[in-house]
Description:
- The complex is a heterodimer of chains A (154) and B (506).
- Chain A has 154 residues and is mainly beta.
- Chain A has one helix at 58-67; strands at 9-13, 19-24, 27-35, 41-46, 49-57, 77-80, 85-90, 97-98, 103-109, 112-117, 122-127, 134-135, 140-146.
- In chain A, the strands form three sheets. Chain A has a five-stranded antiparallel β-sheet with strand order 1-2-3-4-5.
- In chain A, a hairpin with a 5-residue loop joins strand 1 and strand 2 (19-24).
- The longest helix of chain A is centred in the middle third of the chain and has 10 residues, at 58-67.
- Chain B is an alpha+beta fold and 506 residues long.
- Chain B folds into five domains: 7-106, Rossmann fold (3-Layer(aba) Sandwich); 135-204, Dna Ligase, domain 1; 207-331, D-amino Acid Aminotransferase, Chain A, domain 1 (2-Layer Sandwich), CATH 3.30.470; 335-454, D-amino Acid Aminotransferase, Chain A, domain 1 (2-Layer Sandwich); 461-506, no CATH class.
- Chain B has helices at residues 14-26, 43-47, 66-75, 92-100, 110-117, 119-128, 144-154, 180-195, 252-268, 300-307, 311-319, 399-412, 422-428, 432-435, 443-453, 460-478, and strands at 7-10, 30-36, 50-55, 80-82, 104-105, 158-162, 172-174, 200-204, 210-218, 224-236, 239-245, 273-281, 287-293, 336-343, 345-346, 352-353, 356-357, 360-362, 369-373, 380-381, 388-396, 414-416, 495-500.
- Chain B has an eight-stranded antiparallel β-sheet with strand order 13-12-9-10-11-14-21-19, with helices on both faces.
- The longest helix of chain B is centred in the C-terminal third of the chain and has 19 residues, at 460-478.
- Chain B starts with 6 loop residues before the first strand and ends in a 6-residue tail after the last strand.
- At the A-B interface, strand 1, strand 2, strand 3, strand 4 and strand 5 of A face strand 16, strand 22, helix 13, helix 16 and strand 23 of B.
- Strand 5 (49-57) of chain A pairs antiparallel with strand 23 of chain B, so a sheet runs across the interface.
Amino acid sequence: xxxxxxxxxxxxxxxxxxxxxxxxxxxxxxxxxxxxxxxxxxxxxxxxxxxxxxxxxxxxxxxxxxxxxxxxxxxxxxxxxxxxxxxxxxxxxxxxxxxxxxxxxxxxxxxxxxxxxxxxxxxxxxxxxxxxxxxxxxxxxxxxxxxxxxxxxx
Amino acid sequence: xxxxxxxxxxxxxxxxxxxxxxxxxxxxxxxxxxxxxxxxxxxxxxxxxxxxxxxxxxxxxxxxxxxxxxxxxxxxxxxxxxxxxxxxxxxxxxxxxxxxxxxxxxxxxxxxxxxxxxxxxxxxxxxxxxxxxxxxxxxxxxxxxxxxxxxxxxxxxxxxxxxxxxxxxxxxxxxxxxxxxxxxxxxxxxxxxxxxxxxxxxxxxxxxxxxxxxxxxxxxxxxxxxxxxxxxxxxxxxxxxxxxxxxxxxxxxxxxxxxxxxxxxxxxxxxxxxxxxxxxxxxxxxxxxxxxxxxxxxxxxxxxxxxxxxxxxxxxxxxxxxxxxxxxxxxxxxxxxxxxxxxxxxxxxxxxxxxxxxxxxxxxxxxxxxxxxxxxxxxxxxxxxxxxxxxxxxxxxxxxxxxxxxxxxxxxxxxxxxxxxxxxxxxxxxxxxxxxxxxxxxxxxxxxxxxxxxxxxxxxxxxxxxxxxxxxxxxxxxxxxxxxxxxxxxxxxxxxxxxxxxxxxx
Lengths: 154, 506
């Protein structure tokens, strides 16, 4: 059953590759799959698109919905390094209010400067790195506490 | 000229090193690869007849080290050095050092590199040669007061640009007089940091021009020819992403005028070898010299496909003192070619560079396709070098045919292990504005959000969700062996799938 509709499928791994072939209702799809850390988590790819998915059964889904884990999470939280690199600029200080899209930290990788921006309005509550510091992927850079944008922010 | 060239040191890495090695072999020359410790297993090292270790991964200790490259060339008995693009390709000091070591530099004379590398000197020379330049200054600005005067004379909006510039560094757009002083200071300090020199000048900012460039070849026998244009307007932060030849905006008459300007520009600096003159083409058809790239370009394959010329083999012949094999009388573009740069960058996350091991690669194939790659399955994409994995090039008898071929090829390409620009390119190939040829250098700014939001293919997300559910099911059931029917319909309502396409639609 997919979205309440029964579907005939044939699913086969392609030997020697991370690829799977899916025949569904006669349509042909090739999907690349890499397991990620954690139960039921995968990175899937097809025609150049990439999804990180988490497969959960109905019961887990309902529990998670109850405790609000899937509520979307707002925009607050720790901004992490999306790739390994070098911190070249810090554009905020603790206590500073930031507007959505405001620049926070600039990390240089592969000769390119990449500016990490605030996802939403907030207040910077912590800066965890210094200029010149090398960071690993996933390293915490800045913590932004979400605030409701009740007034225009600079 | 020293002895005859028999062996060439390829002072580069990745796809361009492999491209040059192949050209050497076709010219019956031996090729010597160089590599850093990070590139020991890269394809270019295996493709060459010999290889020399330069040093640790950072470019400054390997591919940018002139003494190490010269030592490697001597130790391996090379008579010539091909710099490729990037790294030392446009450093006059390198070209001079190669010549002083008694070796042939596969590229223009050091003097031509120097003349074109200094943007204000290049503008003066072009003006003298009758090549139209973007209005502005042809000398570096002394101070903020002069910047304000010249900006007013040129007319806002203006661009402040570094004299030693490139890649958008030391560049500032100034729309009003109030901003000029701070922009001047910022451009200057950025230029000092990036190029070691703070000289800046002013250029009129053109509204929505196209980036059009002309490929030229010049040999030591005094011949300079133009091989048509490339349309390179699809750029992000001055990095080109999609290139094509010919351009829908260039008529045969305009092509002749651009070609005349390009050959005059090359002649004005005594150019020898392959080079590219970049122009800005205004919507009204006026064009202006932007800069000259004194090397082979990343996007050279689109020209090769429509003109039937191997530019790298011609570079090698010209460096050996032979006349080029190309005759201007025979040059007409045939069909249309498009190149997509497949980079390790995440198009759904502001094109942030990605690192990691390429775990699986399936290269598209079939008529009219070309894959210039430098990374294979098992290789790592690291922080040390640029994120280009490969260039996928499609040729077709018309622009529509080339785009359709590219679309199919992008669908066939499989890269597992790290995010790439593949999905972005697929979206460009289906974008109505791109299909109509309505591109200019602001295209990506305008089209980016629309491209990212589009659903690529009906049913795709559903198929991926089903695949995820089946994968999870396979894992679960494989723990306790039982007769597992491959042909079973999905079990009712046991699994729900949360598909999260990061940054794509949230």
